Amino acid sequence: xxxxxxxxxxxxxxxxxxxxxxxxxxxxxxxxxxxxxxxxxxxxxxxxxxxxxxxxxxxxxxxxxxxxxxxxxxxxxxxxxxxxxxxxxxxxxxxxxxxxxxxxxxxxxxxxxxxxxxxxxxxxxxxxxxxxxxxxxxxxxxxxxxxxxxxxxxxxxxxxxxxxxxx
Length: 167
Fold this sequence. Notes:
Elements: H1 4-7, H2 10-31, H3 36-60, E1 64-68, E2 73-76, H4 78-84, H5 88-91, H6 104-117, E3 126-133, E4 139-150, E5 156-165
Antiparallel strand pairs: 1-2, 1-5, 3-4, 4-5
């Protein structure tokens, strides 16, 4: 949230904040009864899921990224690094967020899509267009889909995104 005023126009900031306001009350309501032990258990489950996804991603050959509901990147397929020219060590372990790799309009549209699907049970995958940014700032037009997985408390936990460049 700290980088919003430096990167976005006021109208885009309002759209992002509105999107966050859609799912925030549900998120808070579901997190309130959780104990510290519950949170530790959820994190252990999250880490276990990452191990399973890492194996699955290694078989797919598709530009894939896994991130938390906050946008923090947790897992990156080598194909995504090839597509975007981002070094793997820049994306993992340095608290990089998926929306930092999108151009502004794509960030706004991502948060609006995430907000509308975060707590609904009808949609398995969300399909969209976006513009990824290389480290140099050069744009990469792409289509992508993302799926939101929930934890045992029905909170959005893991987001799995896959991209295909538009040639």
